[in-house]
């Protein structure tokens, strides 16, 4: 199954998309009013991941239901790693700016928890993760524990659970690591399909294309990847390695160039 690794890095963690993209416009309202307002905007796009299809209060939670592309979000993989999903949600709980705080305070004050549920568009497979009201209320007592690089490392760990992935055109993403000042994507290049010398010549063009894509807000999931790296002061790099020759072409986007 082909998955786009840029998306799968943060596919389980769309909370920030909701907070930053929609909460700010409603921050003077009560949680109930916000839910009613957001219903008018549904579905809310998450880029190639899918969309938020429903936001409601159900079973003591603010429930966010998402319809996602099975080729982008590995639901069985996420389902097999419940603690990893939970820890990432905890990190999002601690991270971010004042908009996050307002969002979680509003949920806490209503006596609610937060539940995010993903349903695959093709398969109907489902996975969910939940923060209880008690966990949300404890947020302020643990703000000092937030580490943006630790949050990024959890996301990378989640991404690696889904690798390798076939990216098409002779490229296979084999691993993602945080290496020095970069999050590095490693790609194995089938040299029967890709000429490494030509790839080297195209490196400046590839870099411009990568930077343009990362700094665009057209895809919500790429936007959140950029924000996660920017918060951690870490750039993004792509290493293309010839399957036979071992020759490597590197595309580096330092943190200072991320918008």
Structure description:
- With 259 residues, the chain is α+β, with helices and mostly antiparallel strands.
- It has 2 domains: 154 residues, 2-Layer Sandwich (GMP Synthetase, Chain A, domain 3); 94 residues, GMP Synthetase, Chain A, domain 3 (2-Layer Sandwich).
- The protein is built from 11 helices and 10 strands.
- The strands form 2 sheets. It has a 5-stranded mixed sheet with strand order 1-2-3-4-5.
- Helix 5 runs antiparallel to helix 8.
- The protein starts with a helix and ends in a 6-residue tail after the last strand.
- The N terminus is likely disordered.
Secondary structure blueprint with pairings:
Layout lengths: L4 H4 L6 H9 L7 H9 L4 E2 L4 E9 L2 E8 L6 H5 L2 H13 L3 H12 L3 E8 L5 E6 L1 H5 L10 H13 L4 E4 L2 E9 L2 E8 L6 H6 L1 H12 L5 H12 L3 E8 L5 E6 L6
Parallel strand pairs: 3-4, 8-9
Antiparallel strand pairs: 1-2, 2-3, 4-5, 6-7, 7-8, 9-10
Helix pairs in contact: 5-8
Any descriptors?
259 residues; alpha+beta; GMP Synthetase, Chain A, domain 3; five-stranded mixed sheet; 11 helices; elongated
